[in-house]
Design brief:
The complex is a heterodimer of chains A (464) and B (351). Chain A is built from 10 helices and 20 strands. By secondary structure, chain A is of the alpha/beta class. Chain B is 67% helix and 0% strand. Classes of the chains: A alpha/beta (464), B mainly alpha (351).
């Protein structure tokens, strides 16, 4: 129950999808809710701003989703990407709950659209937000406002005071002033720590300083570390993050979706020394971009260079920055700061190992492979010979970190002494409880929505 | 960031093309996603497809303070405006009246003065309006004032069509264009809940409905005049008409719609964010809506007070405003309707 005289029953730490789902659910049960969002209003919503869809189980066509997508198939898709590092009980609970979330989201203002051009493979499994994640966030803030939920922006939480098995106080900043609040219940939904480069470097090593952060600069893991320091049980590998290969010219933070580059399968990728280092045609790009995040991280200065020729240019989604263009490979090498002789030799060796490219098919594994080359290129291997030549630089872009708060099926956090009576967690900050490694498109939003609603319900029940 | 609106719009379109989150909001995005590189003509066409509903702006993860600084509705409004001014015939008129509400007001007052002079000086030959100004005098003034803008618009649209690389037009494409304009599909927001215009990211049908009131109000008034012309020449039934006659029924209902619609649009525009529109022409846009309001209000006043001594004055005010409205059509916001139809027809050629 709430403390006597307390202004708020439930404080939600964070302002993204999971936080809003928790806040709305709690407020709909009659709780007085305060949202503490670290970001200023234009950047509210954490990484939810950058999301675009929600992976949803369904037995028959519903909303924009076609055909059906059953629990077992959904779970199999998940297991494939996590390599078995999955809590099956929680994962299946999330999957089963996803179906009822869809109408719940629509009732609270989310609008869906059919699968975007270029993402038709997801038409059956993922419901896309019309306008993307920021429009979802906007709709939820509108609904929250109508429910009387109070929102403080630029209000980073600095400390959550744990006294035995209860949270007694939340400290935060507002307008440069230190404030405290003593709510009956707290929901932590403030993401991972990927925006804290020092922490990343501590976990991953110095190369992490060259990584780009694809999402919000506000996920610095302050609350996560504060709670772990007080003995709240953690989950997930503290040294791991989900990273993909993105355009090397992307901004340090918040580049989001547009910084992705889909051209690797139609290219050769060399490092700063002009050397190839991995099979660019191993599989279709959505199944390989995460591997390439790690491969690039292992190269000198954590940079790779994609080299394609004119015939490959129309084969992939346009990216945010135009490619570097040159009429000769030497000129391209000069513009990209790669030793020209090394690059021309690498391309010549590669071209000599390519056949005529008969049977080339850009959207399926075509088996058009090099012969006698190390490392080989096992699909889409065509000579790079038709000017103009184009280049993109690649860097490692961090999407999220796996370390988080361990929760049970009621989203409740615990210490070694047992559950913390009035502390729940939702979203990226506890997703490590389900996703041990890898990532499945749209599953983060599903975890956030399902666990946000659970956390909000439990918190409201507690203060009633 | 570029100073030149087309260059800047091209920069932004490339970012949109690698995101695509806004694909379902309106016709702009599917057309945009069909290209990989954008010519100046492509940008002009996209700009004229954009109805400035602003939904994409509020959904965008890359608006300021983000360094990508996207503001697609704002920059497309500038490209669109430039395209109307460049293709206007003559172009100098386009620049003058689009930008300056005061010039619109001066033209209106001149129109009113001309009509007042005509009412005083030219012979009258009948009852009702014709007791103030003869039918022949009205035709002598308004026939050229109607034909000139038609010719000027035709030249402008021809220039537009060649700029955007339009192909030979088919009837089905025109039907598609009129169908879209008739429902204001591009202000419905993709989900049918309207635009983000007057209150940040809140969706509302306000702008769509007010625009419909103005559009259909105007068309009803136009139909009233056309029906009067037909009654006059074909059936030899000159004005004045009874209330239960085609010209009166169409004119009064159209006038009321136009009056309410223009008031509504002005209210919405005052609440809207100027930086998401073309700020250079805000004065001209308000001036134009005000002119339409004066046309409709004076027309209604004429209906109510037509039998009083105020007739002469009201007739001069109304017909003067109508005259200014007709003459300014190719050089004011009124031109947008014609360019939009052209853009929608061109878009129908894409699919």
């Amino acid at each position: 129950m709430s403390q006597p005289g307390a202004e708020y029953d439930v404080v939600v730490v964070g302002g993204g999808n999971a936080a809003l789902c928790a806040a709305m659910t709690a407020a709909e049960s009659g709780a007085r809710v305060l949202i503490l969002e670290a970001a200023p209003k234009p950047y509210r919503g954490g990484n939810s701003r950058h999301t675009r869809n929600f992976r949803c189980m369904h037995e028959e066509p519903v909303s924009v989703l076609v055909d059906s997508y059953g629990e077992d198939e959904y779970f199999d898709d998940l297991i494939k990407v996590t390599g078995g590092k999955t809590d099956e009980h929680l994962a299946r609970m999330v999957i089963r709950s996803s179906r009822e979330c869809l109408p719940w989201m629509i009732e609270r203002g989310v609008r869906f659209q059919p699968s975007l051009s270029g993402t038709l493979s997801l038409a059956r499994t993922n419901a896309f937000f019309m306008g993307g994640g920021k429009s979802l966030v906007n709709a939820y803030y509108r609904t929250a406002e109508a429910l009387g939920i109070e929102v403080h922006y630029e209000a980073p939480v600095t400390h959550i005071e744990l006294d035995g098995s209860r949270v007694t106080r939340v400290d935060y900043q507002l307008g440069g002033e230190a404030r405290s609040v003593r709510p009956g219940a707290v929901v932590v939904a403030s993401g991972g720590f990927q925006a804290d480069i020092d922490w990343l470097a501590e976990a991953w090593g110095p190369p992490a300083r060259n990584f780009l952060i694809r999402g919000t600069p506000y996920n610095r893991g302050v609350v996560l570390r504060d709670l772990l320091d007080q003995g709240v049980i953690s989950v997930g590998d503290p040294t791991q993050c989900h990273a993909v290969a993105i355009d090397g010219r992307a901004p340090k933070y918040d580049g989001g979706i547009v910084t992705r580059l889909d051209c690797v399968p139609f290219s050769i990728v060399v490092n700063n020394d002009g050397e190839r280092f991995y099979d660019e045609g191993e599989d279709v790009w959505p199944k390989r971009y995460a591997i390439w995040g790690r491969l690039i991280a292992a190269q000198p200065e954590q940079v790779g260079h994609v080299i394609i020729d004119a015939k490959a240019l129309p084969l992939f989604m346009p990216s945010v920055f135009p490619p570097i263009k040159a009429d000769t490979l030497e000129e391209l090498a000069g513009k990209m700061d790669i030793p020209a002789d090394r690059l021309t030799e690498t391309v010549a060796t590669f071209n000599a190992a390519c056949g005529e490219g008969d049977g080339f098919h850009p959207t399926e594994l075509d088996g058009v492979a090099t012969t006698g080359l190390t490392p080989p290129k096992t699909n889409w291997a065509r000579r790079i010979e038709q000017p103009p030549f184009y280049g993109y630089s690649l860097r490692t872009g961090v999407t999220f970190t796996y370390l988080g708060l361990k929760v049970d099926e009621t989203a409740q956090c615990s210490t070694e002494a047992g559950p913390v009576e009035n502390l729940w967690a939702a979203g990226e900050t506890m997703a490590g409880s389900i996703l041990g490694q890898g990532y499945l498109a749209g599953y983060g939003m599903t975890i956030g929505t399902v666990f946000g609603r659970i956390a909000g319900r439990e918190a409201a029940n507690h203060v009633r | 960031m570029y100073d030149n609106p087309i260059e800047e719009a091209r920069r932004q379109a490339q970012i949109c093309n690698s995101c695509r989150y806004c694909e379902s909001y309106c016709s702009v995005f599917p057309a945009l996603h069909a290209n990989r590189v954008f010519s100046d003509g492509d940008m002009v066409q996209l700009a004229n497809l954009c109805h400035n509903c602003q939904n994409c702006y509020y959904a965008c993860q890359y608006t300021e303070p983000h360094e990508f600084a996207l503001n697609l509705p704002g920059v497309l409004a500038e490209v669109r405006q430039d395209s109307w001014e460049e293709t206007a015939f003559p172009a100098s008129f386009g620049r003058a009246f689009h930008h300056h509400g005061t010039l619109i007001a001066i033209a209106t007052i001149l129109g009113m003065a001309l009509l007042f002079w005509a009412a005083r000086s030219l012979p009258a030959d009948g009852e009702g309006f014709y007791a103030v100004l003869s039918h022949n005098a009205l035709v002598a003034i308004f026939l050229p004032a109607f034909l000139f803008p038609v010719v000027a618009l035709a030249v402008g649209l021809r220039r537009y069509w060649s700029k955007v690389g339009g192909e030979r037009l088919r009837l089905s494409q025109l039907i598609t264009a009129f169908g879209s304009a008739g429902r204001m599909k591009n202000l419905a927001g993709g989900h049918g809940e309207g635009c983000n215009f007057e209150d940040e990211d809140r969706f509302s049908q306000g702008r769509r409905h007010m625009h419909q009131a103005v559009m259909y109000g105007f068309l009803l008034c136009f139909a009233a005049t056309a029906s009067g012309t037909i009654l006059h020449y074909v059936f030899d039934m000159p004005a004045p008409y009874r209330f239960f006659s085609l010209p009166k029924l169409l004119g009064v209902s159209g006038g009321i719609l136009l009056c309410l619609g223009t008031l509504g649009l002005m209210r919405l525009k005052m609440k809207s964010a100027p930086e998401l529109q073309d700020q250079r022409v805000r004065g001209g846009e308000f001036g134009f809506i005000l002119l339409l309001f004066v046309v409709s209000l004076s027309g209604l006043a004429l209906y109510v007070f037509g039998a009083t001594p105020a007739l002469e004055l009201l007739l001069a005010l109304h017909l003067g405003a109508v005259l200014a409205f007709f003459l300014l059509t190719p050089y004011s916001k009124m031109a947008h309707g014609f360019y939009r139809l052209a853009a929608l027809a061109r878009d129908a050629q894409r699919t």
